[in-house]
Amino acid sequence: MRDENKLMAFPTPSPNRRSECDRFSDGYGWGQISFLVCCPRFIGLLILLLLPACETVIEIDPPEYDPELSISSNFTPDSIWSAIITQTVPVGSLRDTPDPLVSNATVRVYQGESLIDRLIYDLDRGEYVSAQGLRPRANIPYRMVVDAPGFRSASAMSTAPLPPDIADVEIGRLSDIPNVFGETEYQVDFRLPNRPGLNYYSFFILIEYPEVGPSDSPYGPNYAYMSHDSRRWYCNFTDVLNPVEVAVGDDYGCAIGALSDRNVDEPTLDFEIKFDLSEELGESLDQGLLLVVLALSPEFVEYQASIEEQWDFDGFGQPVNLYTNIEGGRGIFAGYSGAYHILGIPKFGDE
Q1: C-alpha separations of 79 from 105, 133, 134, 212, 238 in Å
Q2: Is-contact 271 204, C-beta < 8 A?
């Protein structure tokens, strides 16, 4: 996961290297010419300063906007069916929209052509939940259909993959002496079976147990940041969809690892994950850590990758649209499954 708090480094002129403008200047006034030749940015600035003096304001009436339904439902076999239904709002009109939540929608879930559940609106939660307390099952395609007065019908399909089979989990200390920051390096080893077809996974290590089930989302912010020292996985979903040659160590600390089994011929996917943990914190955690591995649908990965691209958007060029698999609307309907393993923290002197 990329660190949004990283500072962008800007190059600074070297005192031991002459600039291109210096090469054109001989101390006899030619530097003024070289200033115009080598620094066209200042000409552009002058143009921008002069343009307001001759600008003409043209009022353009925007076209009429028809709002659409937006569905937000990431479903898992560990939780009952739920969805948040809102309406899309044109740019600049959010303050004029009393409440984007749509509370009078009809939300249905189908397995094939069979209606299996209706979701009712929970006023306290602000979302639709299963009226019967039903949960989705893994490896079964589902379709959600949403209808509301004044909107087009919206629908989408997705499947929650089978939960990952986490095997051969081990944790060990890589050093007995904490570093200058008072942290000790640990390593977690585990493996996953290489299932047929193209599969997507993510994994992370939680320092504290989540308040809800081990596969519910969100999990909270208490991640152990992992060292990216393997080419088997990435720190973001964008690189998973568009694999690139990422040098080991390009990402210093990753809260979440992501990968696919594309081009993997071995029968298992083996991992050796290193992370640092405060010695004081490690001694105080009686319950240990939690290794969480998620099996993700393609729709889930596409949506997360588009969010990352929006994070990286610098304001120049074409804005990035969020991925959607909703027909007749916006949003995301995507399945995932989770598995976890409790990690006991090795104490100093443990064999």
Answers
A1: 21, 9, 8, 10, 27
A2: no
Tokens, residue 79: 């939780």
Q: What is the pLDDT of residues 20-57, one digit of tens each?
A: 333 333 333 333 333 334 444 545 554 555 555 556 77
Domain boundary among 133, 159, 185: 159
pLDDT score of 96: 65
In a domain, 304, yes or no: yes
| Whole-angstrom distance, CA of residue 166 vs CA of residue 168 | 7
Provide the sign of the torsion angle of the four alpha carbons 223, 228, 233, 239, taken in this order: positive
CA 305 to CA 329: how far, in whole Å?
20
DSSP-derived pairing of the beta strands 167-173 and 154-159: unpaired
Beta strand 226-227 with 329-343: parallel, antiparallel or unpaired?
unpaired
Strongest mean pLDDT among 4-8, 90-94, 226-230: 226-230
- Report the C-alpha gap between 240 and 156 in whole angstroms: 23
Please tell me whether residues 109 and 126 are part of one structural domain.
yes
Render pLDDT for 236-246 as a digit per residue (tens, 0 to 9): 999 999 887 66
In this structure, the answer to whether residues 224 and 135 fall within a common structural domain is: no
pLDDT in tens, 294-309: 999 999 999 999 999 8
**What's the pTM value of the predicted model, to 2 decimals?**
0.76
Q: Are residues 171 and 315 in the same domain?
A: yes
Domain span at residue 144 reads 69-159
Q: What is the rounded average pLDDT of the residues 124-144?
A: 96
Predicted confidence at residue 147, as pLDDT, reads 98
CATH number at residue 114: 2.60.40
Q: Whole-angstrom Cα distance, residue 102 to residue 165?
A: 39
Q: Name the β-bridge partners of 260.
A: 200
Q: Is 185 helix (H, G, I), strand (E, B) or coil?
A: strand
Q: Report how many domains make up the chain.
A: 2
Q: Please tell me the distance from the alpha carbon of residue 138 to that of residue 337, in angstroms, as a whole number.
A: 7
Q: Are residues 185 and 299 in the same domain?
A: yes
Question: Does 123 share its domain with 102?
Answer: yes
- Residues 299 and 268 placed together within one structural domain of the fold: yes
